[in-house]
Amino acid sequence: MDIKILGTGCTKCQKLAEATNAAAQALNLDYQLTKVTDIEQIMSYNVMSTPALVVDEQIKLTGRLASVDELMTLLKAHAA
User: Structure pTM?
Assistant: First the structure.
């Protein structure tokens, strides 16, 4: 599973990356997490607010943080 956190490196972006990492580990997923900080790359996803979560090139979350439980639900549904 390819997971990307889109954001400029702000605190919210870092917290989303940490929570997503924790959720993926809790689910024992085979994943790679990448932080995308380049504005041009972020804009290529048509995301207007960050942080954003992209899983296998599908936007799952934009403009807010999510709890580890919510992220586990999102990742589990995507993996199914």
Answer: 0.94
